[in-house]
Amino acid sequence: MKFDTPAGSNPIDQLKVVGHPIDRIDGPLKTTGHAPYAYERHDVVANPAYGYVIGAAIAKGRITAMDVGAARAAPGVLAVVTHENAGPLGKGSMNTARLLGGPEIEHYHQAIGVVVAETFEQARDAAALVKVTYAREEGAFDLAAVRDSARKVEQSASAVGDFEGAFAAAPVQLDQTYTTPDQSHAMMEPHASTAAWDGDSVTVWTSNQMIDWGVTDLAKTLNLPKEKVRLVSPFIGGGFGGKLFLRADALLAALGARAAGRPVKVALPRPLMMNNTTHRPATIQRIRIGCTRDGRITAIGHESWSGDLPGGQPETAVDQTRLLYAGANRLTALRLAVLDLPEGNAMRAPGEAPGLMALEIAMDEMAEKLGIDPVEFRIINDTQVDPGQPDRSFSRRQLVECLRLGAERFGWRNRDPVPGRRRNGRWLTGLGMAAAFRNNLVMASGARVRLDRQGRVTVETDMTDIGTGSYTIIAQTAAEMIGVPLEHVTVRLGDSRFPVSAGSGGQWGANSATAGVYAACVKLREAVAQKAGFNTADAVFAEGQVRAGNRSVSLAEAAGEAGLVAEDVMEFGDLAKRYQQSTFGSHFVEVAVDAHTGEVRIRRMLAVCAAGRILNPKSARSQVIGAMTMGVGAALMEELAVDRRHGFFVNHDLAGYEVPVHADIPHQEVIFLDEVDPISSPMKAKGVGELGLCGVGAAIANAIYNATGARVRDYPITLDKYLDRLPDVA
Amino acid sequence: MRPFTYERAASPAEAAAAAARNPGARFIAGGTNLLDLMKLQIETPSHLIDVNGLALDRIEPTPEGGLRIGALVRNTDLAADARVRRDYGVLSRALLAGASGQLRNKATTAGNMLQRTRCPYFYDTSQPCNKRQPGSGCAAIGGFSRQLAVIGGSEACIATHPSDMAVAMRALDAVVETVRPDGTTRSIPIAEFHRLPGETPHVETVLEPGELITAVTLPPPAGGVQIYRKVRDRASYAFALVSVAAVVQRDGTARVALGGVAHKPWRVEAAEAEIPRGAKAVTAAMLDGAKPTHDNAFKLRLVERTLGAVLAEAKG
């Protein structure tokens, strides 16, 4: 099915099942420990051996010698695979550095081998016996130091009007630089895979957000035809972008299994993850805003610098600045430097998350310069069209509604606009806010739907559920379309034998994947109607029956003994070009800052989201409060500390890389505006998960400023950065 | 984890003797630190002597009016003990500021005292570390050192001691009771128990080879207002940037010990005379001679401000 005109009314609009806060249907499997995760596939793989990954001890250089003799001779060892015996390997199109390094080393903890043994402990012990000699080379590890060598990236560059001239002429100007650090996904489940060969075909039970990307890149790396590779990933213990791509666990499990001649499972140990896998790259962002005295933006410029390995990608931190606020003269630019740190890539709302951390502080600073309330300043600069192409409107944009409702519900009017003078015992308190913005992406997505002789529906798609609720919203979609109770729908996900879906990433999964299921269900409805002798257009599907006029036929009967199967792919036309599709929101935060020590405690958080139809308010709320929690981490603590001499992330475990604990997270409230977006898909939904993160960091930064009068432009906002600027303690 | 042999000790003296016979031996009690380090091959004992069966898990009054805390008393039990809560509040608060409920259920009094540093370079076996591998160098000096020591460090090591409990014990003038391999016992004041790194950062206490902690004794209650204030980057489950253990008397005198600043709980008795002159004066005296790094210079100011908060709180 091709979606190229805005959706009219369709069966989803009945909202008998879709739009309801239904408990996740995979909940019992998870809470009883029966959901099979990649490292524990005892149900499908007998007697696996264990692989332990060896990581490079240098950031850049060459292996000059590798002695695996002692490891091979160690108790229980079945195989040792290194670049010397792995055979020729390709490189995945989504990978920047090779997943099995050597002799060249591209980054610290790049995998340089896997030791396979009968037990995990034997593999780990033997891995420690591998002696590696390196020739270390100098590398670039400090973004600030190589900033001037960064090259311009065409992607995300834009210029409208005369930015420089308008900025210079603006009566009120802001020109500030902000920095965001390298960050790690830090999902709970590590990268893990179990691999088994059958002849020259390999099956990998893994933990991966994008099944087809994974199959494609594993086939490419192993130099196999794609049909010889199967990936299965029904449950994922968190990904956050860290599992979008084929990673070393899957490749080394496959190589280890081939070498050992039996199934092998490999999980990356936590201390290896931060440097072996991808991370969100650090940014340096310069923002310039020029305004009239009454608060109208006349010039807005956003430039961002980030680094990556040669051939890598920039962090697209400036994209939202093309679209979020009005202004006739505009500039965005990205610059990318070569850094020999581990590979940078997508993490938790890439682009907008770090971009808004900077932009939304800048807006707060500008509002203060203007003497205009920060909420009002954003409202003044709302635009209903793409400011770079005024003939192109947003499909649906309710930013102003989100701002006004949020301000009202949060009690924004009680905010003291003068910072640093609200004291409550030992605490300085303050309020902050930010706009939320994240583009809505749509991706082609396929599904297969079966109707069996009992009138039960099974949906199969390689879509993944990374904890988001995909199982549930897909079941809701099929139940709505076919007219059966939710309990009569079985959803099977994450297997490359199923139709290729949008996968989970960039908050495109929910809308795109359910649209794919919608398309397959439309086909199934046609098949059922035809079988029952109805015109498809007349047929009504409800309560396990298909009905037209006075006649009705049960779905079981229509399916017959053989059942009916339909498969389709939802493809998206050019509506995303004709209209700007984005999601909007507002974040409000109250913080308390210890007047003596500067410790921050968040007291309340509110997110208001306008993101199309909310398919399941319960799972959507879970997504948003999780995202808000990530925003707390980004604002206050998450930072991969770079050793600039040796080129690696020093705090590479969960003791050193801090993410919020329960005690950091206060009352969180989420409001979804009643919205449908017929330009987005037949579901009229948009992404919402990442919207919940975009802007949170700046709202917290602005609240800390309001509480203390200390403006910190360098994330994370740890107390050492403003301790000397706190008001005097009485 | 390298293969190791294992035995259960029958008595404290036998445990100490067994340890002396096996130079590669380690005692194991709660294992909350040792097992992690063994998995990473930072600790590679060839022999483990399990002391959990020794009857060292009681808290008993001493004839002097203090408390004798058995080496195996779990952190949870110690923090919850009514006598500790009533008379040694700073200790109970320090314990509850550390780790998590699950860890405190396992971790023991002696084990907490002997915790090893959380310096990230100590944990990365690809990096040199004089504490992990004597003579290999110190990657932390000149590296990422935000958490590390500001005073008492050396050219060989700038690690900190991670314990909260030991900081409170230092403020309370606790005494460590031990048994040696020859069966003799001794009492070591906590001030002398932990060592500064010097040229031998791998030697962290004055314990002799095989010597086993049997108890930690607290003197009679010190009274006063007892406060433990731990400052960190998140609200729970993190090691201290700095911490302050204080026992403040109504007359304004006080005992103060610091955590997160040195290779051992940091107390300078002479500096306590400065209390009437305020936090700034006390901090200057306590941290006289500090050599912070670029990353952790903020700790000096943070100590002063945290101590200021503690003294203000003590006044009520």
Structural commentary:
The complex is a heterodimer of chains A (730) and B (316). Chain A is built from 17 helices and 30 strands. Chain A is of the alpha+beta class and 730 residues long. Chain A has three domains: 2-35 and 442-574, 2-Layer Sandwich (Aldehyde Oxidoreductase, domain 4), CATH 3.30.365.10; 43-138 and 187-275, Aldehyde Oxidoreductase, domain 4 (2-Layer Sandwich), CATH 3.30.365.10; 386-440 and 581-725, Aldehyde oxidase/xanthine dehydrogenase, molybdopterin binding domain (Aldehyde Oxidoreductase, domain 4, 2-Layer Sandwich). In chain A, the strands form seven sheets. Chain A has a seven-stranded mixed sheet. In chain A, strand 22 and strand 23 (545-548) form a beta hairpin. In chain A, helix 16 packs across helix 17. Chain A is globular, with a radius of gyration of 27 Å. Chain B has 316 residues and is an alpha+beta fold. In chain B, 28% of the residues lie in helices and 18% in strands. In chain B, helix 5 (89-96) packs antiparallel against helix 9 (165-171) and helix 11 crosses helix 12 (298-315). The interface between A and B is large, with 40 and 38 residues.
Summary, kept brief:
The complex is a heterodimer of chains A (730) and B (316). By secondary structure, chain A is an alpha+beta fold.
Q: Could you tell me the radius of gyration of chain B in angstroms?
A: 19 Å
Estimate the mean pLDDT confidence of chain B.
Answer: 97
Structural class of chain A: alpha+beta
- Gross morphology of chain A is globular
How many helical stretches of chain A?
17
Strand order of the largest sheet of chain A: 4-6-2-13-10-11-12
